[in-house]
Amino acid sequence: MKSKQVPCDGAAPYLRGMPISSLGIPSLNDSQRVTTPRTGPSRAFVRVEALEVRSDELRQKATVRFELPLSAFDPPLRREDVEGLSVRIAPPAGDRSVVPLEVVERGGRLAIAFDSAPVDLSALQASPLVLALGEPGLLFNPASPQVSAPFVSVQVSAAQLKVDVSASTKHERRERSVQLDALIEQTATERRAMATGTSSWFGQRQLEQDLTEAKARAEASQQTLTPLLAQAEQAWAQAAPLARVATAPVDDARRAAWRSTLVTATNAAAKLPEARALLEAAREVPELAAEDRAKVSALEAAAAGQASVDAEVRQLFDSLPAEARTRWLVDLAKFEVLPFAERLSSAARESSNATVDVQLLEDQLAAQVERTGRAVTPRLAQLDARLAELRREKEALLHEAQAAASETVPVTYAADLRLL
To answer: Considering the entire predicted model, what is its pTM?
Structure first.
């Protein structure tokens, strides 16, 4: 059989405008047949308006479904000529895969058909699709990937790609659905935390913890202070009146008046025994007795001033708040140089500081709670609105009609190569 050159008319009228995967195969006359020698490789150029491909989920790879009538070759190919053959797909920048051919019947006519392995979409858009038909072992050898001996080579160029994007559309919808579920759960969790006051958004969380710790410190310091105060109160009750007056929390004028009264009373009490003895001795002399009696009365009145001052001092002690009484006891312990004076002073200072911390934190917490209360209502409204928006989008995603399943992508080749 003579070898004939395959016509390479760039217009390729027998396939112009015919989409790949067409369900019908047009009838061919003699002028439309591709002449193919049976004794050696031949090449053909096919131009179509659109090449139909199916993209993957990421719109990076695509598979091509291609059908070519056996009657498109001259002489026409027979079923036995192509059965068992494979196709090597070679976009210049794509995957060089070998897939088996199948013979299908369309409208009573036979055609070769195949589904390609995934190839780069960008390669299909930038370069013609090259199909090498032949024995699988002769099409591709991993040891010599550049060597190929096809039965027929067909170059397919297209004006545009019709890309089936249903897979990527479904993938995007699944991804958005998962994202919406996460956002809904996150927003609902924040809303629950906001409503129950357990959110980290609340500033009083730290204040409440600090207040608890401060109260614990105050309780511990009070337990240390209580027995020391009992000892100090006993020492205060047994102390000399001048010692209590010297450490009393009063102004200088009052303290000076008390001290003067106590000194006078002390001196009068010391003179009373002698004055009473003189009065007893002078009872037989009316004039002396009257004078001594007046002196004894004056001394007794002066000595009674000690009891009066002592009563005032005790009344003052009982009327003071606990913190002021504690300071008085600490000062007395130091004044009397009691053995537990330093421990009492340290425990009182720690207790006072802890009490101040508790009061300060309670005031801060009350202010923070008030501020938070004013802010919670609008924040809850924002979260409710956000949840409603996310749920509406999820509902729409579940029930909306399937988005457009195909896109048209223009093809721009660097050069209109006829044959590779």
So the answer is: 0.42
